[in-house]
């Protein structure tokens, strides 16, 4: 993670949809930004602040062309804490696996021109992953 080497979007709001390589039972999401010490300006006002995580449920919407989104969590990235922050998701409400996750940044820490996200990690268990037989690795 190097200053300026981020996914940047104009303004203080934006979104990204992450397509996972397999269907996953989601458990948490990790967001990373640079530290104040690593920042050339000495600030991290471009860091995301209020973030919401959604998944899409195809075929549930009244409109056949649209997908119903379900909120799995809202959280605040705190620039005073560790630059790598993990937040648990409320997947218990939807006991199924998903292949896409939407990260909606609702605000940042004060930069009016852009917001930067350096790294996003999605945590969970892959669907249909079988446990190894006893005695095998």
UniProtKB/TrEMBL annotation:
<keyword id="KW-0812">Transmembrane</keyword>
<keyword id="KW-0472">Membrane</keyword>
<dbReference type="GO" id="GO:0034993">
    <property type="term" value="C:meiotic nuclear membrane microtubule tethering complex"/>
</dbReference>
<dbReference type="InterPro" id="IPR008979">
    <property type="entry name" value="Galactose-bd-like_sf"/>
</dbReference>
<keyword id="KW-1133">Transmembrane helix</keyword>
<dbReference type="GO" id="GO:0005637">
    <property type="term" value="C:nuclear inner membrane"/>
</dbReference>
<dbReference type="InterPro" id="IPR012919">
    <property type="entry name" value="SUN_dom"/>
</dbReference>
<dbReference type="GO" id="GO:0043495">
    <property type="term" value="F:protein-membrane adaptor activity"/>
</dbReference>
<dbReference type="Pfam" id="PF07738">
    <property type="entry name" value="Sad1_UNC"/>
</dbReference>
<protein>
    <submittedName>
        <fullName>SPAG4 protein</fullName>
    </submittedName>
</protein>
<dbReference type="InterPro" id="IPR045119">
    <property type="entry name" value="SUN1-5"/>
</dbReference>
<feature type="domain" description="SUN">
    <location>
        <begin position="1"/>
        <end position="127"/>
    </location>
</feature>
């Amino acid at each position: 993670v190097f200053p300026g080497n981020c996914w940047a979007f104009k303004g203080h709001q934006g979104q990204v949809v992450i397509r996972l390589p397999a269907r996953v039972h989601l458990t948490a999401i990790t967001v990373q930004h640079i530290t104040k010490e690593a920042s050339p300006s000495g600030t991290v006002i471009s860091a995301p602040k209020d973030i919401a995580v959604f998944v899409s449920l195809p075929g549930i919407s009244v409109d056949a062309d649209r997908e119903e989104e379900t909120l799995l969590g809202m959280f605040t990235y705190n620039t005073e804490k560790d630059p790598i922050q993990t937040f648990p998701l409320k997947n218990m409400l939807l006991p199924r696996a998903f292949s896409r996750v939407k990260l909606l940044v609702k605000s940042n820490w004060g930069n009016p021109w852009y917001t930067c996200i350096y790294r996003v990690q999605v945590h969970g268990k892959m669907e249909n992953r079988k446990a190894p037989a006893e005695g095998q690795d």
